[in-house]
Amino acid sequence: MRSCSNCSISIFSLIFALLLSNLNAFAQNDSLIDDYSYFKRNFKLNALVVGRYTTSLNSDTDYLGKHFVDDEDVVTNSFEMQYVRLSTSFFINDRISTSILVNLADFKKDEITGKVLENAFVTYSHNSYFKLRIGQFRPFFGLEDLHPFQLDNSYAWSRQYSLFGRNGWQSFQIGAAAFGSLESKILSYYLTVYNGNNKNIIGDNDSSKNLTLRFEYMPVSVLKIGFNGGTARYKGQRANAYGIDGQLKQPLGDRFDLDINTEYKKGTNFETFRSSEEALPNLDDYNMEGFYFLTRLRYKLYAPRLRALELSFRQEYLDRNTSVENDELLTYVPMASLVFAGTYDAKISLVGVINDYKSNIPGTSQYDSNKMLIQFQVAY
User: What is the pTM assigned to this prediction?
Assistant: First the structure.
């Protein structure tokens, strides 16, 4: 999952040149204060707890969506803990900060290698136009990489996001990024260079790197459009990914807010390439694509302990391998939520998940399933 090493060298050379070009600005700002060692130094701690009760609505599929030929082996319901997250932000001075995010719920799993630690990065903020980040973080590829968590508009990340994350295009990666925006935030950019081996891997396994670039354009205050592109190399072959997304946030009077998120992406699927039984597989033949449309309507209640009622609906199409027929999946997620504090500081949701495969394979997770769940989240 690599792009050419020469591209990485060029990117780092550009970043270094930008830093040198701002030396005069550094000197001018430093003259205002004698010592920045403790200037604006502070600390922030956040927590997120998410749990759910899930029940399958099909007697032959378990609560995770896997089909069983023998109904006696099916576990149709379960309590689950999805997140027990602790995040910290340390502000060293007016420009340098560091952040750490861990998910303590991963400790309940038998195999925790590659889990638990999610974010661990340092950010240098020169101004709104130019910022640097290095460490482990989401690489700004697609709409969902920009969310601290996807539990605001829906109950979980989209299937598209999870698939692209397992293939090294999204989710937590180790690398460096340069990003910024104009003062009015009409145009923003995110340039990321990273290993492409997913999170918590000590080092890279070759000398090339993934390269992704995202642009955001806001033509009006309620609409934001994103353009994503990525390139990589794997076993001497070129790989790529691209996508487009949009966000609409429109108030409807004093009480109603309407949010619409939509995203399309297509890219190389390294998972299916590695599992290929062909003698000399061609990486160009292994692609995945997905599209989702998510609508959320929020009604503000303004009561002391009940802040809002939310209704949302996500419709998603996913094709894990575009060269293979009949593996497409349609997912429908209706959701009703009560918000008790803040914007999403305390919320309980009733969720339905309907999976409709074009072709069912008995005894596997590629099988039509329906489930309901009650999910709670508390964030501080």
Answer: 0.86
Q: What is the CATH number of domain 5-23+40-379?
A: 2.40.160.10
Tokens describing residue 166 = 């397992």
Q: Helix or strand or coil: residue 160?
A: helix
pLDDT of 180-233, one tens digit each? 998 777 999 999 999 888 777 777 777 778 999 999 999 999 999 999 999 998
Find the DSSP H helices in 210-324: 270-274
Residues 215 and 227 sit within 8 Å (Cβ to Cβ): yes
From CA 124, how far away is CA 18, in angstroms rounded?
Answer: 13
- The separation between CA 250 and the C-alpha centre of its own chain, rounded to angstroms, equals 23
> Cα(370)–Cα(354) distance, rounded to whole angstroms?
5
Position 229: which residue type?
G
Tens of pLDDT, residues 130-142: 999 999 999 999 8
Produce one character per residue of 221-256: b if its CB has 16 or more CB atoms within 10 Å, e if not: eeebebebebbbbbeeeebbbbbebebeeeeeeeee
